[in-house]
From TrEMBL, chain B:
The keyword Acetylation does not apply. The keyword Transmembrane does not apply. It catalyses: L-threonyl-[protein] + ATP = O-phospho-L-threonyl-[protein] + ADP + H(+); L-seryl-[protein] + ATP = O-phospho-L-seryl-[protein] + ADP + H(+). Pfam families: HATPase_c_2 (PF13581). It comes from the Bacteria. It comes from Oceanobacillus sojae. Residues 11-140 form the Histidine kinase/HSP90-like ATPase domain. This is Serine-protein kinase RsbW. Negative regulator of sigma-B activity. Phosphorylates and inactivates its specific antagonist protein, RsbV. Upon phosphorylation of RsbV, RsbW is released and binds to sigma-B, thereby blocking its ability to form an RNA polymerase holoenzyme (E-sigma-B). Keywords: ATP-binding, Kinase, Nucleotide-binding, Serine/threonine-protein kinase, Transferase. One of its GO terms (molecular function) is ATP binding. Belongs to the anti-sigma-factor family.
Length: 116, 158
């Protein structure tokens, strides 16, 4: 597979005391979701962490991505960390809306009209 | 009989090929002049169907194949995703699928189960045959006019 044609996923973590920002880029599906989960969950499990997942460079996500974020939300309630998504592309946000998850997951900003 | 072109592919039942099927469908739908939004819907729908086949059809130490067929009609695309794995209880799967309801406590939300629901929301027609393995047949119509993103739920065109 040529990189760039089949998009894989990359996750970069920026830490500043309790604020952890995960910059995710690529496509989130059943192949790449385990990698996202592996980076995200340890941060969520630490009590007091403020975890922000920046999805600006994620142009595609399906229900496996929703599964990761639902799992993160549940774990954050247990561990006392806080979990938010930001810069969600309109297309990706639509998946949260259709499934009703936009009501319970804290989503800070949505990028509209990113497809022009 | 209505004329159509047919394209069929077989891929190993492995997660790394989900993206390949998505790109393939994107190319075909683009060739058929589907709108940008419709192509994005199709990409999610085929990924959900192939993911389902990858995750449920074969056991961990089993290898298998998934067959994906595309029927290209004048006004629509028909996509078939089939596995030859053990069949599952369709009614049970269906009963566990659906959107989040605001009366549900967070701890009770399923982490899976949104896949089939998304397919039904994004496609115009969905049929599932569960006799020999699982076969999902889904149809999306190619509308001339752009459909607004916010009111493109389940279509009324049958």
């Amino acid at each position: 597979m040529t990189e760039g044609v089949i998009m894989n996923l990359s996750v970069k973590i920026n830490e500043d005391s309790n604020l952890k920002v995960l910059e995710v880029s690529g496509e989130i599906d059943a192949y790449t979701a385990p990698e996202l989960k592996e980076s995200l969950m340890p941060l969520i499990r630490e009590s007091g962490n403020q975890v922000e997942v920046d999805l600006e460079d994620v142009q595609y996500m399906d229900s496996t991505g929703l599964g990761v974020f639902v799992s993160a939300l549940k774990t954050s309630k247990e561990s006392g960390s806080h979990f938010t998504l930001k810069n969600v592309q309109g297309r990706v946000y639509r998946i949260f809306e259709i499934t009703g998850l936009s009501e319970i997951i804290d989503i800070k900003a949505v990028i509209r009209g990113g497809n022009e | 009989m209505e004329a159509f072109d047919y394209i069929e592919m077989k891929v190993p039942a492995k997660a790394e090929y989900i993206g390949v099927m998505r790109l393939t469908l994107s190319g075909i739908a683009n060739r058929m002049s589907f709108s940008y939004d419709a192509i994005e819907d199709l990409k999610v729908a085929i990924s959900e169907a192939v993911t389902n086949a990858v995750e449920h059809a074969y056991g961990e130490n089993e290898s298998g194949e998934i067959t994906v067929g595309f029927g290209l009609y004048e006004d629509r695309i028909e996509i078939m995703v089939a596995d030859r794995g053990g069949s599952f209880n369709l009614e049970e799967v269906k009963s566990e699928t659906g959107p989040y309801r605001s009366d549900e406590p967070v701890e009770k939300i399923r982490e899976g189960g949104f896949g089939l629901f998304l397919i039904e929301a994004l496609m115009d027609e969905v049929k599932i045959n569960n006799k020999y393995g699982v076969m999902v047949i889904m149809t999306k119509y190619n509308r001339e006019e752009e459909v607004d993103m916010d009111d493109d739920q389940v279509s009324t065109i049958q």
